[in-house]
Amino acid sequence: MVLKPPYTQPEEIAREQVEEILRNNLLKKYVNLSLGSLVLRESQSTSLELEIIETESNKKKIKKMSCSGVGLVDSIFSGIKGEYGKKFKSLNNIFIECFHVVADMKTRENFDGSDSKVIVVLEARTKDSSKVVFRSFGRSMIESTVKVVLNTVAFYINAEKCFYTLRTKIKEANNRGRGDISQRYTSDIIEIVKISKYGEK
């Protein structure tokens, strides 16, 4: 399988379309997660000390957390998903369907190619929902893996926030007799539930 930026799968384009819906409805309440720093230790298991930068409403907050598991991907995915899943319950239903790491040898600067950038692709889904594809690109495999997991978790956090926001907006629009607005919000919520299902809050 050859992975070349920017797109290799239609699910990536579909994800960007959903992200536009999320940004347009959440506005300043849209959450971004980025990597501040990390320390990795490996012996019989893998452990990580992470600083994650949360940005929402133009405010930044640093969250420190520890993750451990069987290998890098398990440690990061289980740890980050578990931490944020305490508040955003839909995260507990996400699983990895496929995970790829490929070196893009055309980006090498050294003769031996050991400095080539890597493409990390994570395919995630929830039960009975569409696959969502995420991608990260950089010279560090570890950093790129953490970033793609953060992007995945942030996407599902925003999807859950947007679902409940839209449900409230639909109710308010119907109460005001604004079926046109309600219909627009309903169209957005239909796209969101294609990638995850939500219960009563």
Residue runs with pLDDT of under 50 for 5 or more positions: none
Query: Could you give the count of β-strands?
Result: 6
Number of helices: 4
**CATH homologous superfamily title:** Alpha-isopropylmalate synthase LeuA, regulatory domain
What's the helix-strand series? HEEEHEEEHH
Shape: globular
Strand content: 25-35%
Distance between the termini: 41 Å
Overall CATH class:
Alpha Beta
Q: Give the domain tally.
A: 1
Q: What is the radius of gyration?
A: 18 Å
Structural class: alpha+beta
Helical residue percent? 25-40%
CATH level-two architecture = 2-Layer Sandwich
**Largest sheet strand order:** 1-2-3
Largest sheet: 3 strands, antiparallel
Provide the residue-averaged pLDDT. Answer: 90
List the helices and strands and how they pair.
Layout: H1 10-26, E1 32-42, E2 46-56, E3 59-69, H2 72-84, E4 94-104, E5 117-126, E6 132-138, H3 141-175, H4 179-192
Helix pairs in contact: 1-3, 2-3, 3-4
Report on the architecture of this protein.
- The chain has a single domain, classed as Alpha-isopropylmalate synthase LeuA, regulatory domain (Double Stranded RNA Binding Domain, 2-Layer Sandwich).
- Helix content is 39%, strand content 30%.
- The protein is built from four helices and six strands; from the N terminus they run H-E-E-E-H-E-E-E-H-H.
- The chain has a three-stranded antiparallel sheet with strand order 1-2-3. Strands 4-5-6 form a three-stranded antiparallel sheet.
- The longest helix is centred in the C-terminal third of the chain and has 35 residues, at 141-175.
